User: Fold this.
Amino acid sequence: MVDLTGKVAVITGAASGIGAAGVEVFVEAGAKVVAGDVQDDKGAALVTRFGADKVAFRHCDVTDPDQLKALMQAAADEFGGLDVLWNNAGSGGTSSTVEELDLDGYDFTMDLLLKSVFAGTHFAVPHMVARGGGSVINTSSISAICAGYAPITYSVAKKAVAHFSKLAAAELSKHKIRVNAILPGFIATSIFGASLGLPREQADQMAEMIAQAGATMQPAGRTGQGEDIAQMAAFLSSDQAGFITGGEFVVDGGITVGPPHSWNEELGGPILDALGITPEQAEQMAEAMRGGQGS
Ligand SMILES: NC(=O)c1ccc[n+]([C@@H]2O[C@H](COP(=O)([O-])OP(=O)(O)OC[C@H]3O[C@@H](n4cnc5c(N)ncnc54)[C@H](O)[C@@H]3O)[C@@H](O)[C@H]2O)c1
Assistant:
């Protein structure tokens, strides 16, 4: 079990999904957490659940730098300092294609997913310097490395978040601040429903449906859960990860190892498909070949 005893962490997007799992995992590991989000009811419920001596909540829209600055200050005010910042808040952003070019949507998405990471890290640095170091974790996505998982603007922002993590790791190493990115795969959260514009309650219900429906999408044989990502974030926050900085950590149940036919033997694969040969016919042909070689 990772040990975060004595550490104070700020987690953004902490009211739901991956961030909410983060609050749970970090508190279990001994950390005190300042949770930031725009969903105030769910944030207040976190404080009730874990206790005000372990969790504080602040309304924080990460697109507003002043609110991010106040969130970092809250860690100092509530718990005496700041050791860990997990920049995690996000949504799907604009679904605009290149041909459609929704520039307002582009600006909104970049502000939410990228500028917030720059600004959040900026405001965390003085607090971490005062503690003699720290750990910044940024939630990127497998959409940073493959097409087909998310809209283009979101994916570009997440790629930039991963690269920011590497460059900031270099810049901030003089302060003993480590910076790493996590690239989650398909995780059963409300983000998919929320990105479709569903009310939050329905989006939350959709997260449960995704957990069932997505089980066969990756070699792991189950859909990812927020806790899968939170465990990686907790490790990267800990002193056990003291040698790890500038890294990009894919946590995806293997979904990016290759297309489904590469790990699911029941699927024929694109070459057989193109030739119109079923997996059964391919097996018969192979059997006939083996028989021919043996005679
Ligand atoms: N779920 C996945 O499959 C997946 C995959 C890769 C990356 N991610 C990333 O993980 C992070 C967390 O998403 P999730 O899947 O837990 O979704 P989620 O919708 O369950 O949680 C996201 C949280 O961010 C908050 N948020 C949105 N806009 C905000 C803003 N302007 N200011 C502050 N908080 C805001 C929401 O209120 C919500 O509580 C996001 O950055 C997302 O892009 C998710």
Summary: Residues 12-13, 15-19, 37-39, 60-63, 88-91, 112, 139, 141, 184, 186-187, 189-191, 194, 226 surround nicotinamide-adenine-dinucleotide (CB under 6 Å). The chain has a mean pLDDT of 96. The two ends are 59 Å apart (CA to CA). Residues 8-258 form a domain with the Rossmann fold fold (CATH 3.40.50.720).
